[in-house]
Amino acid sequence: MTYVSLDAWWWPFVFILFAGWLATDIWRFAGVLLGRKLSDTSDAFILVRSVATALVAAVIARLILFPSGALGETTLLLRVGAAAIGFLAFMAGGQRIGVGVGVSLVVLLGGMAAGY
After folding, report:
1. Domains in the chain: how many in total?
2. Which of 6, 36, 48, 99 could cross-link with 93 by S-S, CB 3.0 to 4.6 Å?
């Protein structure tokens, strides 16, 4: 079965959903099975956690420094400011991710509405 095998409006969405699920869930299940007996303080776990954190930081840096779409129409100062204020809110709010993301979003949307 291929991407163009059916001529239905919904088929591309089902194909992409299935392909995305297949590509990611295999690795999730493998991680659960292989990491079940892994200690939180082991070198392997620390390495995996460090790489995952670095990847998230790299994606955030790319979104701030080289944005696309509507985010690319904002100023660098607004994007950096929203990230910094969101981080401060994250720290002041008891290190809750929702607080940091929410405050950053409000600052970013407010700055976009003001034309920055």
Report:
1. 1
2. 99
